[in-house]
Amino acid sequence: MRNLMPKSALVLILVAAGAISASAAGSEDDFKTAYAAAEAANKEAGKLRNQWTTTANTLAAAKKAADAGDFDKATASAKEAEALAKASIFQATSEKTRWREMEIR
Amino acid sequence: MKLRSAIYLASAALSLALLTLASTLPSDAADKVDPVADAKAFKKFFTDKFPKVKLEDFVNGPYSMNEDLYKQWQDKEQFPPYEFSLEMGKEMFSKPFKNGKTYADCFENGGIGVRQNYPYFDAKEGKVITLELALNRCREANGEAPYSYVRDEMAALTAYMAFTSRGKPMDIKIPDDPRALAAYENGKEYFYTRRGQLNFSCATCHVQSPGERIRAEILAPALGIVNAMPIYRSEWSGMGTTSRRFTTCNSQIRGVPLSPQDDEYRNVEYYLSYVSNGLPISGPGARP
């Protein structure tokens, strides 16, 4: 077994943090593009049976901001959601083999 | 000097090649599904980690972790908070369906004292059947609507069935069927796989950290954890089924829960129950 915070966790945190700090342009088209990418990534995470609640929440926040006409905020949230979804995909993929490191033998 | 360098280089290259080969070849342990060895190692891990806890006491979860908590459990059992659910379950269990049949008609021994045999692997279906699933199938077979897997009715029925089986050792069988072994192995994989934004697996809390606090809660050991189901949780102010426990664990680590009784949950219950074989059924339980 390994430590509570393996390297993969650090990667996930860095990926998510990178998204949060990402700046976003503010047009409706930018939002639509970012939102579609986030939804696609989250759908892929769903196929891997590993969606995160935070991805869904961030997608909802993006939609809410877009509905209010704040496309800067909406695009930033959509990009954050995409990064979260990609991190969940990375997690599901790497855990396909890594889970054995924690197994009691 | 050149010769020495050449030897060093050759040694390094050989070591690297061996390491590469070792990392690409799956080990026997990783490939072979051996539930008997798993269960033995599982019990050893927990009894080594908690040498003062009797094997049969692990079913009391956090209450087995130290003397003070154990006393709390003994006091709680004087006026158990799950009693209302037990009474409700007893009444529901004996009440006939509209067609005149009862739950007893669906289970071996009339459903009394059989909790320790669930979940089981159904060869015909090729899947794991949990007690909660069997209860809903019984309802549907008799023209009744299924209950929610996470609500009070299901908790009450399973509480009553567990109560009639108290003290009986968990007795999960894995038939000599590759599908059963695959279900077991998939359950094990689910148990150890990290998920959710918090990057926790079931084992992060219940193998690496039992007895430790996570906020105000004391984490239960995985050994015997299913023997106490369903449970009354003070945090929930009510009863919770095994399905409720699995789905809430997932959402607590910021993972989107699967649907109750999806294959993954059925398989992880199969795995956890098997490695707890021999420990007594203690459900319904109470937890902080």
UniProtKB/TrEMBL annotation, chain B:
Binding locations of heme c 1: C106, C138
UniProt GO molecular function: electron transfer activity; heme binding; metal ion binding; oxidoreductase activity, acting on a sulfur group of donors, cytochrome as acceptor; transferase activity
Keyword Flavoprotein carried by entry: no
Reaction catalysis annotation: S-sulfanyl-L-cysteinyl-[SoxY protein] + thiosulfate + 2 Fe(III)-[cytochrome c] = S-(2-sulfodisulfanyl)-L-cysteinyl-[SoxY protein] + 2 Fe(II)-[cytochrome c] + 2 H(+); L-cysteinyl-[SoxY protein] + thiosulfate + 2 Fe(III)-[cytochrome c] = S-sulfosulfanyl-L-cysteinyl-[SoxY protein] + 2 Fe(II)-[cytochrome c] + 2 H(+)
Keyword Phosphoprotein: no
InterPro entries per record: Cyt_c-like_dom (IPR009056), Cyt_c-like_dom_sf (IPR036909), SoxA (IPR025710)
Binding site for heme c 2: C202, C205, H206, C249
Known cofactor(s): heme
Signal sequence range: 1-29
Keywords: Electron transport, Heme, Iron, Metal-binding, Periplasm, Signal, Transferase, Transport
GO cellular component: cytochrome complex; periplasmic space
A biological-process GO annotation: sulfur oxidation
The protein, known as: SoxAX cytochrome complex subunit A
Organism: Bradyrhizobium jicamae
